[in-house]
Amino acid sequence: MYFKISKKDFLAALSTAARAISNYSPLPAFSGIKITADKDQLILIGSDSDISIQTILKKSDDCKLEIFDMGQTVIESKYILEIVRKIDTDMIEVEMVDGVQVKISGKSAEFKINGMNADEYPLIDFSKPMETFTLSNESLKQVITQTTFAVSDKETRPVLTGVNFSCDGSVLQCVATDSYRLSKKSMELSNNVKFNITIPGKSLLEVLKTLDNDGDVEIAVNDKKAQFVINDTIIQTRLIDGVYPETNRLIPLEFDFELTIDAHELLGAIDRASFIKSDGVSVIKFTLSEEGCILSSKSLEVGSSTERLNSASFSGEPLEISCNGKYVFDAIRALSGDLVKFSLCGEMKPFIIQSLRDDQVLELILPVRTYA
Fold this sequence. Notes:
This protein is of the alpha+beta class.
């Protein structure tokens, strides 16, 4: 194996592939990046067995690449990234010498690093699943940012650590919940597909890091894996086993109270009250009437805060409802638009938050009981 490539392109591809590598790799080979020099392209693969990333560099006007000798090797990711990042040159030469040892050179600097035999790297099947659909980069960004914050961080119910993607026709529904809050995003697709899968939240966050500002992403799924094809990069993730809970029955359909409020004013008020906590949780209380909205927080250990929200408009009988302030803050921050609407059923019943500008996403939050 012997090739020459621009430092900028090589470092970008290495950084992309390395994002799939865990500090606690199940196999020694998974601590490295597999590099394959083919006829006219360079293929880089990183994996931790749960998520795998393959990115391809091809010779073009934008990418300076010359392959003199084909071959493949596996190099510890932290070492090759460190070398390529710090080497002071525009073009880098990579050559395999003495079996598995790899020489990396540029200008007057030369490094020799011990690689691993590529045959020891597990075979990863990047074949495309049958069910495919396309989303724009911007749409996929919205799906990820508006759902992943609500996944559970507890492994007691593994299926809740992922986002459920389901479609039976042309409407994609993406749902995340930790059983105390729920986020649901709906989106119209250009074709009909049928699937019901749960993708790990951490895998979706890696996809988010790779998305460009424009263009489309091809998504292919089956009952074992999901693939995201972004330009010349494939991000492939295993799915979470288990049946995702039926969440539609949790979402109220009729409401007795409605609050409309400026999102920025409410976020600021919650942020100012967030230091007042009981047992590590910031509980906020909305006191609602047609005269206005008062946001308060109280803790025996810390103190209390009270703030009137001037932009609030409320309809319904007077109501007091308490909830986790962080949950409301996260939900509103995930929505777009200046005005948000709270649809409520009662003091201890789940309520919904939506943007007046986008009815394709809703956030549901369970209230909490307070005794003061």
